[in-house]
Specification:
Rossmann fold; alpha/beta; two-stranded parallel ribbon; globular; 8% strand; 6 strands; 9 helices
Length: 301
């Protein structure tokens, strides 16, 4: 008998209550495999980054935000959170800033694709990339590479998904600012020193009216804020590493932002699980042959 036989999901009966943790890596393999097979086959991949966040927040803010968000979403929805990715890809103007550790776009795309491929072997059929850092340059490419291979994958960046539009917040969402600091105060206040919080700056290369600010609704004649090289390098542009005003941050704002995020994702995951029950890959419900396999077959003929 194979050593893996005892871990096969058919050999175990479990319920949602028997899952020890919402985190994939904190469960024994047999229980995790059974949970995915019988209860919920949505995996959440939290995508963070390692970069400076001014004098008041930790370097790992984006990663810690992604971790806290994924955990709360998994607790609410029954999905499983995959281990946190602490390194991310970065827009051009982040490169060279002290304390930032960026991955190349190719490395980040490859990491996401490999993680989803591997996690699918445990039985996950639906994947949600939950990013707390601006890395659409790689996450969007990864989603479509995975789609060609037959993996149902959704990707969101929390600030644009929540689209606060200055409802909870006074300002648009930027960097180490009111928004990110509020989330930090709610999730890990022990690592935040508000006595050191100072308003930041940052000069754009063209008028800000031409780009959609993070978390804001779009207007005619605007580009997405990562669709161009709109800003000079932060290492030459920022005095304190902050864009926005973190002095406006509060724990209550962070709690409300997280509540809105979790509420939207709870509704989304319920829709997915109702329409595509456990064991169903939405992308392959009509055909078990991924596009990539068809392309290879046609090319080789």
């Amino acid at each position: 008998m194979s050593p893996f036989h005892s871990c096969h999901p058919r050999a175990i009966k479990t319920t949602m209550a028997e899952r020890k943790s919402v985190w994939y890596h904190e469960n024994p393999a047999p229980e995790m495999l059974a949970y995915i097979k019988e209860v919920n086959d949505i995996a959440i991949l939290p995508l963070g980054a390692t970069e400076q966040h001014g004098p008041h927040c930790p370097i790992g803010s984006d990663a810690l935000n992604a971790k806290g968000m994924a955990e709360k979403v998994a607790e609410k929805t029954g999905a499983t959170a995959l281990p946190l990715c602490m390194y991310g890809s970065h827009p051009h103007h982040h490169w060279g800033m002290p304390c930032n550790i960026p991955l190349s776009f190719e490395t980040h795309i490859g990491m996401i694709v490999d993680i989803v491929r591997g996690a699918a072997q445990a039985g996950f059929n639906k994947f949600l990339l939950l990013s707390a850092h601006g890395q659409v340059s790689s996450s969007i490419v990864a989603v479509h590479k995975l789609g060609i291979e037959g993996f149902f994958t959704l990707s969101l960046h929390w600030y644009d998904f929540v689209r606060d539009n200055q409802d909870v917040l006074e300002d648009p969402m930027w960097h180490a600012d009111e928004a990110e600091t509020s989330v930090a105060l709610y999730l890990y206040p022990e690592l935040v020193d508000m006595a050191k919080a100072v308003k930041g700056g940052g000069e754009g290369l063209i008028d800000s009216k031409w780009k959609i600010a993070p978390g804001m609704a779009a207007r005619p004649g605007q580009m997405y804020h990562f669709e161009g090289t709109f800003a000079p390098p932060e290492k030459d542009d920022l005095e304190n590493g902050v864009i926005g005003d973190p002095t406006k941050a509060t724990t209550e704002k962070g709690k409300k932002l997280l509540s809105n995020l979790v509420g939207h994702l709870d509704e989304l995951t319920k829709e997915i699980m109702t329409k595509y029950p456990v064991g169903v890959n939405p992308l392959l419900q009509y055909s078990n042959t991924p596009i990539l396999q068809i392309i290879h077959y046609e090319t080789e003929r």
